[in-house]
């Protein structure tokens, strides 16, 4: 990875010359401050997306819904239009100069959409509100990973991304912890009558409370300074912007590495997100826990185990790469995927809630080790001017399989195969037993094309 020097700047079109000459690379302190701010955004987005997990029973009762409809609200609704919006957003990230302004607009959209979820009176209205949440949150990944990759070199990139990616387990955990207490307080207060809005139920009030605070973050995000774009070797891509046709040609030439990496990470997303969405409900149904108890227990587990796992994966990546192992990221993902299968399968079958939570904690710690490493791997083999689009493509696939299929597959197995709500534990055990070994095999098959892509980007010495 190289930064544009004076010679390269002189070869740019006039407009980009002016940009390159005026941009100043922020300090290390500023770069880490941006990572912390982006982490806060990720935390808020996870809270807004996941808080609904605790309100399944209340929403089902008020709207007369079944598990499959709930799965559509928790998963499919948040990705139904993301598949259309993600790549165009990625192109804006790659070709624009205002990545921070784009993200600020996305934050405003998903926060307002979360609050609008509390206005819903019908399944259709709630579905549209959750679609709005998904579209707004689709700006976060491409923008954040693009900015971080331009702030940090490869040897430190995975750890920086792991700090940002802490937002997923921390936000998901806080969604359950904070959401549990907000929902409890709202239930104790009871239904309320608000000006203009009218009568609102406790679950609706919870959406209002968790949705609006994120608007404050949008103001700070809009002020983030742009880092310099890092140039790729001219053999890979020129320094000028690529047309859509050139972008497609670039991907077609390297389809083996991108299809293997994106496909395997997408399946992991299906496993992780689907399990996380239904685990609190499983705890409630199987062990008789209250929503508050399940939310608090599972939330703390995600924050502690998920957070530590995320940082551990990023640290190991940097540790091995600094010692001359540029292919470390793919090896880490392979072994982590294999190791976490056992606790994921056994956990839901445990006779006690404590046993189920302990094994889920182990699986979460191990599994989150691949989160930042996977995204860092994608950045390492992709030129700066394509990172937004490739990140958008990966996240689109992850959310499509994870949020839409992961949630719905588990619900479908429970409802249409077992025909018993109490059999949710078996649906949770079946998914990792199938997906885990398949993903590990895909990582093994990706090693050679990944190595070739790293060599092409100048990140792998051919002698190694």
From TrEMBL:
<feature type="domain" description="Major facilitator superfamily (MFS) profile">
    <location>
        <begin position="34"/>
        <end position="451"/>
    </location>
</feature>
<feature type="transmembrane region" description="Helical">
    <location>
        <begin position="203"/>
        <end position="224"/>
    </location>
</feature>
<dbReference type="Pfam" id="PF07690">
    <property type="entry name" value="MFS_1"/>
</dbReference>
<keyword id="KW-0812">Transmembrane</keyword>
<keyword id="KW-0472">Membrane</keyword>
<feature type="transmembrane region" description="Helical">
    <location>
        <begin position="390"/>
        <end position="418"/>
    </location>
</feature>
<feature type="transmembrane region" description="Helical">
    <location>
        <begin position="158"/>
        <end position="183"/>
    </location>
</feature>
<feature type="transmembrane region" description="Helical">
    <location>
        <begin position="70"/>
        <end position="90"/>
    </location>
</feature>
<feature type="transmembrane region" description="Helical">
    <location>
        <begin position="356"/>
        <end position="378"/>
    </location>
</feature>
<feature type="transmembrane region" description="Helical">
    <location>
        <begin position="299"/>
        <end position="320"/>
    </location>
</feature>
<dbReference type="InterPro" id="IPR044770">
    <property type="entry name" value="MFS_spinster-like"/>
</dbReference>
<dbReference type="InterPro" id="IPR011701">
    <property type="entry name" value="MFS"/>
</dbReference>
<feature type="transmembrane region" description="Helical">
    <location>
        <begin position="332"/>
        <end position="350"/>
    </location>
</feature>
<feature type="transmembrane region" description="Helical">
    <location>
        <begin position="29"/>
        <end position="49"/>
    </location>
</feature>
<feature type="transmembrane region" description="Helical">
    <location>
        <begin position="257"/>
        <end position="279"/>
    </location>
</feature>
<dbReference type="InterPro" id="IPR036259">
    <property type="entry name" value="MFS_trans_sf"/>
</dbReference>
<feature type="transmembrane region" description="Helical">
    <location>
        <begin position="424"/>
        <end position="446"/>
    </location>
</feature>
<dbReference type="InterPro" id="IPR020846">
    <property type="entry name" value="MFS_dom"/>
</dbReference>
<keyword id="KW-1133">Transmembrane helix</keyword>
<protein>
    <submittedName>
        <fullName>MFS transporter</fullName>
    </submittedName>
</protein>
<feature type="transmembrane region" description="Helical">
    <location>
        <begin position="102"/>
        <end position="120"/>
    </location>
</feature>
<keyword id="KW-0813">Transport</keyword>
